[in-house]
Here is the input.
Amino acid sequence: MQRNQLSWFLKLMLAFGLAFLYIPLVVLVVYSFNDSKLVTVWGGFSTKWYSALLGNTQILEAAWLSFRIAVVSSLAAVVLGTLAGYAMSRIKRFRGSTLFAGMVSAPMVMPDVITGLSMLLLIFQVQGLLKSLSVNAEWLGQGFFTIFLGHATLCMAYITVVIRSRLMELDQSLEEAAMDLGARPLKIFFVITLPLIAPAIASGFLLGITLSLDDLVIAAFLSGPGSSTLPQVIFSKIRLGLDPQMNVLATIFITVVGTLVIIINWYIMRQTTRREREAAEAYRLEKLAIEKAVHSS
Here is the structure.
């Protein structure tokens, strides 16, 4: 009886948590079709705010900038995070390993204000050094490139944790067997290790995009004139009052991100099912070969 009551309590808490998370999103999507300019008053069904958003060049340019930064910084963070996670999981101890692990994890625990300010000071120092050497440093001005550096640094820390966790779970006997057969480490990584950690890489890439699109503080330090990201534009508009176009923008992001997550999950599940079928088929063939060898002897 007590177990049954506990089960109902857990189900109720789960339902309450899901409702707390998703009911505001549903309300936001519904009010994106509101005809009234007041976002809290329903004035009838209308799609005029979608048309208004498509004509808002400021928001569209900020969204395109944020999307480009998110994709590029996530790709860079995936490459660096994979290398860092591989080194930390396969090379157990090396000189400076403790310092390396601490520096990789620092962006996760460091306040965004400190991260943004430190990177801004570093950029200023590099600019001054380049100017003293009579080197053109305009490419290092605050804008796309500086925001990319900040987001890549932030995303790398989280992606490294994801990749390292996946590598720690892998059975190293496959890599050791390939090494015994004469395969070089680079080939082992690309043929065996990389396909096995592909789901973790995809998850890390999506996590990096989410972190980049969500960041406001670091971008505020590293952005310059004409390079405001979408969170900065939204924050500046919300401070002046609620705008129905923000509901439309959020609805579009929910649709795109939700679709992308469903596709990635479907692909990962399909790959997992395929590997399980291949493993089962290999086990069956091996068993048949053993039984045939026993009968022949």
Q: What stands out?
A: The chain has twelve helices and no strands. The mean pLDDT is 83. The first helix runs from residue 2 to 31.
